[in-house]
Amino acid sequence: MKNVKKYLSTMLALALALPMFTGCNNGLDEYPSDAQIPAPSDKFTTDIQFVSRLSDAALCTSEEECRAVHDYIVTTLNGKNGSWLTILDRADNGKLSEMLGTAFDSYRWTTFAFNRIVDKTSYQGSMLYVNQCLTESKGVPCGAGCYVTGLTTGMTGVRTDRNDLGEVTGTTAVSFDVNVVTARFDTADQIAAFGGSEGVLRSFYNDNMPFLMIGTVKNDLFGSLQGIGQSVGTSYGFNVFEVAKGAQYTIFLLTEERFWGLNDVQKETLADGIESYAIKVMW
Question: Which one of 160, 184, 233, 251 has the lowest number of neighbouring Cβ atoms within 10 Å?
Fold first, then answer.
């Protein structure tokens, strides 16, 4: 039966689909329906795993690097107990079979977020591992050579209660479906196509708000990405957080200011130039 599930995961690996949002236990049931939702805080947190070189190079170029990434992810995801979302930045088609093998061994469903296609045979992108079967994801062109990908999956997190002294008095598991968006921006025209009242960001906002976006942007374009948050023409602005900065690219977190915030990030080296970032997000 496990082999059947793994086979189905492979068939769904490159599925394209339309995201939507449905909620269940989001940990906010204590607030009346007409009450203002409080700003994000570390009372509610969730963990995301992001693996990248933060450069223009592919994530893995050798069997040794693939094995290092594989072993780390299988260990940290710990079956069904680890992060609900893992993003492998620049997991290009040259090593796609190895990345799918890692998904199988970590009991995760997969999809692929395209960045660019060269000569119709070679493509760049990110592999996403999730802990819930995906039926849909959607890639939207955003300037030359960029696709913004959205999907819906199940998120797991923790609600932490504290007394007046700040001491933890209890924790509660929290889960609900969430819209996830990702992209890799490396030119100014991609940023321009993403922002503005008619841009890709506004389109995702109209169809799938709220969503959580995490991706990479060229270091010298991070300021431009931050600036588009107020150009979308929505009732509330968007925050763009700098999660981690590498030699050429920066991991960013983008969300409407009411819903999500960055709590913490921890980095660990997996192989020469390959880092894993444990990103703690709050809501």
Answer: 233
